[in-house]
Structure formats: structure tokens, C-alpha cells
Amino acid sequence: MRKSLEKYYRIDKLPHIWCPGCGHGIITGAVVRAIDNLKLDKDKICIVSGIGCSSRAPGYLNFNTLHTTHGRALAFATGIKLARPDLKVIVLTGDGDCTAIGGNHFIHACRRNIDITTVVFNNSIYGMTSGQYSPMTPLGAYATTAPYGNIDRNFDLCKLAQASGATYVARGTVYHVPQLIKIIEKALQHKGFSVVETLSICPTYFGRKNKLGSPVKMMEMLRDNSITVKAAEKMPREEMVNKIVIGEFFEENAPEYTEEYMKIIQRAQGEE
Amino acid sequence: MTMTSKPRLMQGNEACVEGAIAAGMRFYAGYPITPSTEIAEIAAERLPKVGGKFIQMEDEIASMGAVIGASLAGLKAMTATSGPGFSLKQENIGFACLTEVPCVVVDVQRGGPSTGQPTLPAQGDVMQARWGTHGDHPIITLSPSYVREVFDMTIRAFNLSEKYRVPCILLMDEVVGHLRERVELPDPASIKIINRKRPDLSKIEYYNPYQDYDGDGIPPMVNFGEGVPYHVTGLIHDITGFPSTKPEVTEYLISRLMRKINDNLDEIIDYEKFYTEDSETVVVSFGSTARSVIRAVKILRREGQKVGMLRLKTIWPFPHKAIQELPPTTKNIIVAEMNFGQLIEVVGASAKGRFNVIGLNKYNGELISPDEVIAKVREVNKNA
């Protein structure tokens, strides 16, 4: 680790609990680098998570960190942000945490356009409980609770976020790290609700259940199957099967929730 | 003498919001549910006027989460609900118990179980208020009987919650919530406000968020965003706030959480005795039921019946001492409650066979009337 980044970590809490080959440390590192590149005030950052492998990340980060209940990170984060709009609130969550048990909180946080950055660690599986299918597990994939193949259609998280009202939506992978850092930087600078879906790898459960080979092989799959948003626009539909579209999908300026609430306070006090 | 405001006709739910704001509430998150909705409506109107924040969340679970987040960020926070919503909030109430985040949860009880009877009164959430969330945990529960008392007790709920860093449940019922009474509010300057204890950071080299610095079982609290990085988790944690599975750490934490309440029962517990000095029969009640009991006791006393009443203002921790200190003349305890028999279990345990403990229960959506109390007392006294 770069010496200058050590201040962002709780070095005494390392090594982390993640399995060898897990992609989550790369995403955590990308979040730290984005914070460092933007020179954000460390004391004004709150990092909130739910439950699962990804949600253990805040424990290693040296900020005000809050490890909440399963799926509820965005609800707690909304309370913090509305109480203290000057704080930079970042939510680190997983595919199960965010889109299954936390799905309702996710779409409503998008809808409110509250100034929170959400980074979704998408490893396509419930890792902490050892390999059950999530709403992001691809159709046909295997999991401990899908021993005959998954018949649940998976979410496209970026489409879900955009349709729900998020005002910055992007996708990256743990293979394309420089791009991921840039995307997270843009998300952190964006005023409003920003979503960064990051494809991670889970060699221990998703990889093993689906015979995907070593962590290196899984990384190569991310490399070989990813195409940019621009390339995807020109690609015929039949060639898009199993492709991962990465980059920025959507960005717009829209009224931000806590700023709108400050106007409510002014309106209410003006009436008196 | 305390200055009071001009008399006003006020609803219980309104008094709750006024009390909360007087206590310093500056954040409310909620979800509409009968018969508590007025609390959210009035909070939405009143809070921004005092610079506070109101948010209607997507569900009850999220409301409880937002309240905890806001409290961690330094604002006194409250939510209000009724039966089905109280069930949904339990998950995050447990989080607040374990992470010691002050907050007030109002449950305006209605008939249950399930959707039950949204517009009718009941007192069926007594046990849920104590044990609704899983695992061993501390909790404080207060229950008001009058509109003015709703105001005072909401302030007390905030004070106790801030002092002991524990969620405080205000257990109202549909009648107390919707009742309108003539109320004179106290001069704000005369209201005693307690704020969460803060550490003296100049004397602490490294702040441990769950260290019992003062030996009273209550760790001093730094709010998020004050430049002191620390971790909060719903996992069992050590004094540094980080997860631990060590037996000694687990045992220490759970026993400290219980100790901070159990060592302060005299301050937390509040009740009212009425004609108990020479009573043969004492009626134990709380909330709106107590109003009928007082009326009944007055009538029975005029007849010369040796009857008194014990009105519980604190339900949890349970006021065992109040039961055990009843005079030697007391033979019978009638527990009047609008449920199938919940508090009676605890009264029975407290009585330890010293008294006959008899239930007066109603669970049909109607109040227990003074006549029903009178009939029960007469029946008990005749059989005694």
C-alpha cells in the first residue's frame, strides 16, 4: 500500500476477512484512491454499509463508519445526510444487500436524489452465507440454492437506478481499476444520488459453483467480456449476450433532497 | 411557581410532538399509520419552523434506520407508529439497543394481531415493547394516561434515552393519542432537558466509543462528523467498537447494557399510588385504562370499599418494588389491561404468591369502563 494512503485505513484491523482472490479489496482501494485524489476532508466523510462481505469494508476504513442491518444502509445514510448535509456520505453495499432485502430503500434513495454515493460490490452471489443466488445472479448460473441452475431473471442495476431517479449512474469492474477510480471520483463529485455498480469476483463461491477457474481466469473474463457504453451502442443485439457494458450510463442535474429541504425550512420560518 | 401557557384544547398525538420539540427533537422520520399519523403530520409542519428535519420514509424499517442515522449525526430523533409498524421497526430498535444510539419510538397501540383494528384502542403491545426485538437487550417503556402527561412523558422519554443511551418506547394507545383535553403547557425555561454525555477529549488519548470511562456503564458519545473517526456495528463489539466473538467481551457488553438500566431503577421507574395505604384490593393499570380505574376507585371508596390503585407510568423496566411494597392489608391485585393478559404475567411473578392476582381483560376494541372495574372489585372483595 502507498504510504500516503495509510491514513485512510485502520491498519490494525488488517488483514481483512475476505477470501483469497476476492475482488472486494480492489473496490475498497478504488474508493480510498478516489477520496485521496479529490482531497476530500477526511473528518467530513461517513461510510455506511449493510450486511454481507462488501459491508465489512467500512470496518477497515478510518472514518466515521457505520455497519448497519441487512439492506438498510441507505435508510441510515439518509438520516445522517439529512441531519448533517455538510457530511459526505458514502454507502458500500453488495448485490444481495442492495437489490434484494434493500431493494425498496435503494429505489427510494434514487427517487429522492439525496446526495449520497452508493458503490455496489456486485459479485453475483451471497458470499457471507456461502453461495446463495441473489437478484444479480445471472440466469442459468449455479448457486447453493440454485443447484439446478438459476431461473430468477436478474436485475440490470444501472437501468434500475436510472429508472428510479438516480442522477449519476455508472458501472465498472475490478479489472478496469483506473476507470473505476475515475468513475467513483465523478460519483463523489456529483450533487445528487450517484450509483456505481462494480463487478467483483467471488472465486470461492460463484467461481467454484460455476466452474469458472482461478481468480486470474475470472479477472480475464471481466477483461474479455467488457465493452464500453459507446461500443455497446453500435453492437448488434445478438452479440451483446454475456457482455458487460461498462462506463457512464447517465448523468443529469436535478434538485437535491437536502438542499430542497433547506428551502422548506426557509419557507416554514418565513411564514411565522 | 412554573409559568404556564394559555389553556389549549390539545390532542394526545399533538402533545407528543410538542413535548418532543420541547425536549429538543430536531429530526423525525416516519411512515403513515393509524392511529399515530397525526404525530407525523404535526411533526412535518412544526419541525422546519424550529430548524429541524422531517422525512417520510418508504417504510417503517427505513424510518427507524433514518432516526438512528440522524441521532448518530447529533440530532435528537423520534419516530411514531402503531402495531404493524412497531413490528417492522423491531429490527432496527435492536440495532439502537446494541449500538446505544438514543432515540424515541412512539407506539400508539391499536387492536391486533396483524392489521387488527386500526381505529380501535388496545394495550396488546406491552410484551412487544419489552421483547419485540431479538436477543437480550435493555429498553425503557413509558405509558401516559392524559394529554398533558403525553407532553411531559415525551420529554422524559428523550431525557432517559439521551442519559442512558437506550431507545425509549412511549407506549400510548388510540384513546390517549386521539383524546382532546384542556392542557396548559409549562414555560419552556422550566423544562429540564438532559443531553447525551460527551467525553472530555482533551483527557482521552484515543477515544473508544464503547469504553465505560466513568464507571456508570454509559459510554460518553461523540457524534459523527465531529472529527473523531470511530466504528459502529450491530455485531457484538468490544470497547473499541469492533466485532468480537470472545466470551468475556460478549458477556461484558451484554451485562453492561443491562447494568446501566438496572443500576438506575429508582430514577427510571415512575408510578402513582392512589388509596393504597389500607387497600385490601389494588387495581394495577396504565395508559387510558387507568382513567377508568381512577373513576371506579373513587366511587368504590365512597361506598367504603378498601380499594386502591397503582398506575404504572414506567412499564419497562417493570416496577417490581411498587408491587412488593404494597401494604400488608393488600390481599388482591387486579390487573386491568386491554389485552388477553400480558402485564399480569409480570405482576404475578412480582407477587410471588403473596397476593391473589386476578386479570380484568378486554380485547374487543372497547375501553374497560369504570362499571366493569367496579363489578370486578366487588366480585373479588366478596370472594375474598
UniProtKB/TrEMBL annotation, chain A:
It comes from the Bacteria. Keywords: Oxidoreductase. GO terms for biological process: cellular respiration. CDD domains: TPP_OGFOR. Residues 51-197 form the Thiamine pyrophosphate enzyme TPP-binding domain. SUPFAM superfamilies: Thiamin diphosphate-binding fold (THDP-binding) (SSF52518). InterPro entries: 2-oxoacid:Fd_oxidoreductase, THDP-binding, TPP_enzyme_TPP-bd. One of its GO terms (molecular function) is oxidoreductase activity, acting on the aldehyde or oxo group of donors, iron-sulfur protein as acceptor. This is 2-oxoglutarate ferredoxin oxidoreductase, beta subunit.
UniProtKB/TrEMBL annotation, chain B:
GO terms for molecular function: oxidoreductase activity. It comes from the Bacteria. Residues 280-373 form the Pyruvate:ferredoxin oxidoreductase core domain. It holds the Pfam family POR_N. InterPro entries: PFOR_II, Pyruvate:ferred/Flavod_OxRd, Pyrv_Fd/Flavodoxin_OxRdtase_N, THDP-binding, Transketo_C/PFOR_II. One of its GO terms (biological process) is response to oxidative stress. Residues 18-246 form the Pyruvate flavodoxin/ferredoxin oxidoreductase pyrimidine binding domain. Keywords: Oxidoreductase. The keyword Nucleotide-binding does not apply. NCBIfam families: PRK08659.1. This is 2-oxoglutarate ferredoxin oxidoreductase subunit alpha. It comes from Thermosediminibacter litoriperuensis.
